[in-house]
Amino acid sequence: MANKLSQSTSPYLLQHAHNPVHWREWDAEALAEARATGKPILLSIGYSACHWCHVMAHESFEDEGIAAIMNAHFVNIKVDREERPDLDQIYQTAHALLTQRNGGWPLTMFLTADTTPFFGGTYFPKTARYGLPGFGDLLTRVAQYHREQPDEIRAQNGRLQQALAAQHAVAPPAGALDRAPLEQGWREMHASFDPHWGGFGQAPKFPHPEMIEFCLRRAALQHDDEARHVACHTLEMMCRGGLFDQVGGGFARYSVDAEWAIPHFEKMLYDNGPLLRLLGDAHRITRDGRQQALFRRCAVATAEWGLREMQSPAGGFYSTIDADSEGHEGKFYVWQKDEVRALLKPAEWDLAAPYWGLDRAPNFEGEAWHLIATSLDHAEDAGIGSARAKLFAAREARIRPGRDDKILVSWNALMIEGLARAAIAFERPDWLAAARRSLTFIRASMWDAPNRRLFATHKDGVSRLNAYLDDYAFLLKAILAVAEADFDAGEFAFACALAEVLLERFEDPEAGGFHFTSHDHEQLIDRTKPSFDNATPSGNGVAAIALQRLAHWTGDARWIESAEAALHAFSGALRARPAGHGSLLMALEEHFAPPRMLILTGPEGDIEAWRRALAAPYRPDLMVVTPGRGASVPEPLRRPVGERVNAYLCQGVACLPAIADLTQLQAALNAPIVLPG
């Protein structure tokens, strides 16, 4: 029989709908039951592409005996961390405070009826191993502890509440803003850079897109060759390694080794959007022709993967591709040497074997090979291209990993921005059209216009859950990226509406910055105001960047004031750990050196030729917009439209006289701007 998860829209929760466990979603009914019965809550948080979530489900949640213990002693609540990042943030932090260990998924927390956690962990095996207790024994002991030690639990809960509150006051504001965190952040990033394999830190190794972008910006703005090397070498090694799917495109979530060779095979939309954007930026700034070709090929394969496997017929992008197929992680992606040899012609094999490491010892469990590009040699050979096509066709016949087909606003926004930015860099209007399809879907299906409210998630025609800071901030920044590629007054008005909601429902008017949940959100045991970049960028950092930029488009000082208040709120954190705050560092950088605005008017065909020429160099300090004419164009962007192209280069509210010659404009862009008066 199905449990109460059978009515969910989350693919992850639906995976557990037929467990013998009496699972419930996190809702008022489940919490009321805990209060009424006095039972503790067993909270299990995971997501559909999580390998160890599947392992724990098969071992324990599908076991009748384990389920009987859970049902007898606990109110069992299952949460999809992708739908409820608010709960995940709180209970991951609580886990770290209680255990002094890093968290992860599955997250297994035991709560009192008021939802305060008193014990927890991550994965627990069914029987004792890995130095962990068996889950059945653990359940019995936790239930007994809850019954017999209420005073001890109450005292601990009080200490935990204090510790959670203290998290928000660890680094108080540091006074006046200055540039010091920018230099310190660069020094920290450079110190953690792996000079051989690229990336930051050692295994497990994550992409860290915000750190890469910070380095690319530094390279462009300060002509820093070392910063360019850090960023471009990192992207090269990621594109050559097993983190990148050499056959089908797209990046996995992280590498288990320092060499980027063997990934955790799940593919997340939130990684691929930012990396697509960065490949376009790196393609424009690298001085290495072979690297440039690699970045283009990697970007094309990633965009094609996104459009082929992740974009719904209605336009929105799905969330994740599972790591597992047929019960084994990575089975869909890895190869046997003889299997590859049989698919290829001898000449193709002679190229492919050394190029993908098939002439070396197997690099994956079970004597298998996960493909990596061992060098840039022969990367552009036709033989490698034909070999890749044959492997792709053969792999398509395999049993595919599962796909989580819910649509999340925040992750779609990251993909929208990635496609829009890459469309400019690689002259791919089809990518911009795909980005716009997703944006159109969100406006039509996930935006409640009368109540000016986003829904966080959509599946099977149903949009639900109050959206979070990341949804509004990421989408605002994404729309500005689309507007640079192709201005649309209706989309821009939507961006302004999102910015209004950010200030009205998320801003902390006293201390500055933005809460992760809105003022009218469900009351939880903690209300976070995150500043660190994690797997996705900080909502506060992205909000500050987007609001500052929006101010230059609209001339509305409110956006600047709120962004500056956020920078002040987190100035202490920026000083303490700048490298972990890449998004806020970039907002701080634009606070001191606002980007210039270039407004182009004139015949559409002529403008496109100018835009192509202007897109060749990477200029992170320049926003190019072609607003056209009409009353709906914001006042700062309105310019006369004549029979030839005119360019208006502006810094703040002051602009140079119209420039009608492309060569003169390029010279002006390469020189310090000197405004009239």
Characterize the structure shown.
The chain folds into four domains: 4-169, 3-Layer(aba) Sandwich (Glutaredoxin), CATH 3.40.30.10; 180-322 and 404-592, Glycosyltransferase; 333-397, no CATH class; 596-670, no CATH class. Helix 9 (209-222) packs antiparallel against helix 10 (225-240). The termini are far apart. The model has no long low-confidence stretch (mean pLDDT 95). It is built from 25 helices and 19 strands. The protein has a four-stranded mixed β-sheet with strand order 2-1-3-4, sandwiched between helices. Strands 12, 13, 14 and 15 form a four-stranded antiparallel β-sheet that branches. 49% of the residues lie in helices and 10% in strands.
In short:
With 677 residues, the protein is an alpha+beta fold.
Secondary structure elements and pairings:
Layout: H1 11-14, H2 28-37, E1 41-46, H3 51-61, H4 64-73, E2 75-80, H5 85-99, E3 107-111, E4 117-121, H6 135-148, H7 150-166, H8 180-192, H9 209-222, H10 225-240, E5 254-255, E6 263-264, E7 267-268, H11 269-285, H12 289-310, E8 320-321, E9 324-325, E10 328-329, H13 337-343, H14 346-355, H15 382-395, E11 403-404, E12 407-408, H16 409-426, H17 429-445, E13 447-448, E14 453-459, E15 462-466, H18 469-485, H19 489-506, H20 539-554, H21 557-569, H22 571-576, H23 582-592, E16 596-601, H24 604-615, E17 622-625, E18 646-651, E19 654-655, H25 662-670
Parallel strand pairs: 1-2, 16-17
Antiparallel strand pairs: 1-3, 3-4, 5-6, 7-8, 8-11, 9-10, 12-14, 13-14, 14-15, 16-18, 18-19
